[in-house]
Amino acid sequence: MKFHNTLIKWYLQTKRDLPWRKTTDPYPIWLSEIMLQQTRVAQGTPYFLSFTTAFPTVFDLAKANEEQVLKLWQGLGYYSRARNLHKTAQTIAFEMNGIFPDNYADLLKLKGIGEYTAAAIASFSYNECVPVVDGNVFRVLSRYFDLETDIAQASAKKEFAALAFELMPKDNPAQFNQAIMEFGALQCVPKNPNCEECVFNNSCAALQKKKVGQLPIKSKKTKVRNRFFNYIVAVDNLENTIIQKRTAKGIWHNLYEFPLIETDKVEDFETVAQQINQNFFQDNKIESLLEYNEDSIIHKLSHQHLHIKFWKVSLKGIIENGIDLETAKTFPFPIVIHNFIEEKL
């Protein structure tokens, strides 16, 4: 029996009931694909439902302001996805009359849409014969065919795409693409897959050679950078605080935060207190200073580990440009700051 017949039969019996699979409309398919980059389905689904409720059409998303979009995205991470999503919605709504390109090549020209997402939209919405290649596909094909290509290399995607195209039934590429991704997500999982129950256990080369745990091959990740953030949570006589927008390029662009002191290492109380006294709140007398968390909160990003401490600064009088806490909560924050506000303030 052909690879695709076995795979699609498994898919039809096993597939999850996911909202974006019930349509060929490119708008919700695009939303789901962007959200599920770097995000598990269980985590991404509530965000998808929130977005499609708030912005049922690409025009609604295009007309929203960026802060609304970032606020709804809060907690999904990789916030450049949300900013690109918003800009692309504006392009489609205002320059293309709300009509998505109907082919892979033109989809690829849109901001934030790479090869994988363009292939997914082109096949799921328009049934174009173009293979999707994501982590699941790399894993399934490398194991089934015992391929030792380093998937971190740029050339790997072309090799795996060519193989997937060869395997793909040309009369139903959408179903094949959905099936191979689902198989990687549910059956051929990264660690300890249940090979005894696998529909390919008689034909998988990696299983026969006892190499399942070794594949796919991926060279080591970029070295992680450690950063040390000290957030200054001011509280004045009106119980107002102050927040600021991160406008510099880099992590959390256009999200909000408390005034920040970034240091080279974890600093002691006296050092941080001295910096606060010297550099902040010159128009208000500092009445007290304390640590909300004695031990740093370690917030892990893809190539950075943030060591975060929050410092409460009680001020005499009224702070300039202060904001009450309920209003502050309506702004988009990185999830680590959002969680701190919900738990501590």
Write the layout of secondary structure elements.
Blueprint: H1 3-14, H2 26-35, H3 41-54, H4 58-63, H5 66-73, H6 80-95, H7 104-107, H8 115-126, H9 135-144, H10 154-167, H11 173-186, H12 205-208, E1 225-235, E2 244-245, E3 256-257, E4 260-263, H13 269-279, E5 286-291, E6 297-300, E7 304-315, H14 325-328, H15 335-344
Parallel strand pairs: 1-7
Antiparallel strand pairs: 1-4, 2-3, 5-7, 6-7
Helix pairs in contact: 1-11, 2-3, 2-8, 8-11, 9-10, 9-11
Protein name: Adenine DNA glycosylase
Keywords: 4Fe-4S, DNA damage, DNA repair, Glycosidase, Hydrolase, Iron, Iron-sulfur, Metal-binding
Catalytic activity: Hydrolyzes free adenine bases from 7,8-dihydro-8-oxoguanine:adenine mismatched double-stranded DNA, leaving an apurinic site
| Shape call | elongated
State the CATH superfamily name of the largest domain.
Answer: Hypothetical protein, domain 2
Q: Architecture of the largest domain, according to CATH?
A: Orthogonal Bundle
The succession of helices and strands, N to C, reads HHHHHHHHHHHHEEEEHEEEHH
Number of helices: 15
Work out the count of structural domains: 2
Parts with pLDDT < 50 across at least 5 consecutive residues: none
Binned strand content: 5-15%
Question: Helicity, in percent?
Answer: 40-55%
CATH class wording of the largest domain: Mainly Alpha
Distance between the amino and carboxyl termini: 61 Å
Helix-strand makeup class: alpha+beta
